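Lab notebook, bench 4. The sequencing result for the construct came back, and we need a structural model before the next group meeting so we can plan mutations. Quick request posted to the team channel:

Model the 3D structure of this chain.
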Amino acid sequence: MVACLPYIGLKVAWMAGSRLGIPEGSALLDGGTLLRVANGVTVLMDGAVIVLALLLTRPWGKRVPAWLLVLPMWVASGLLLPIMTAFPVQLAVGLLGGGGGRPVGEGNSEPFLDPWVFGVVYGGFIVQGLALGVLFAWYARERWGRLWQGRLRDLPVGPTTPALRATAVAAASAALFPGVTHLLWVSGSTAGLDAGRAADRTGDFFVMEAVNLLFVVVTAVGVLLLAFRRSGRLSLRLPLVLAWAGSAEMACWGGWLSVAGLIGAGEAADRPTTATVLTYAVQMLAGALVVTLGAYFFAERSAASALPTTAAAPAAADHVS
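Done. Here's the predicted structure in token form:
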């Protein structure tokens, strides 16, 4: 919770009119009411991290409906994982002289924020992500541990298996388009980029695109392993973690970049192209398909694990009578 304070404090200060950490010439100085609203929304989002931490650590958190905890946790994963992955690499690239621009952003070299702001804010995000990850792992093990134990080869073939496999193939196929796009961008191509972004690409941009590509691959591998179960000795946890992390990043980070691009688009040269919008839209669709598959998978596992208990109750009653 302490890690949330720097970000929330800065946002509240900016909403109150402070220019702390904002250099002259920054686009943030011309944000107006829309930027204040956006700052208010992001304060609420970071406040939700505090609520999640309480849910994961307090006894009453065990009584919360599963979806009310899992869905916000999935969204938080999707927004924090890219920062946790990309920012340390961007720092390393910067030390080697290849950085510049906005860390974890989309490569705009114009003044945006003072460099120290990125370190404080993203450092806090990394701590938040690590803390939430550990807390959620402990919580999930205690509450739903039986659902993600075992190996892939132990998974039974149920009546919904063909539908789950078809959904997995659809999700992996949908991931091809954003995957190829991110591969082109990380390889140096400007196809589909707006003029402003193409001109201002830095090392930070290429690191972020490599991270985007990584999560596309992670998503496809995780969901296909889970659906087709070819690696019998593999622990069930691995494809579940891959599918969780990948789908969250694709859907939530793709959505975040879409909204940020539309809100921040000023000059015509900086407006997202149709290819960029389509890339993030398909990316979000693929992530949504994977998380939907995961929801059905766990629902089926939960129902199956409840069957022995349900069947044993009448037998026990007959024995007593």
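Residues 2-303 form one domain.
Will bring this to the meeting.
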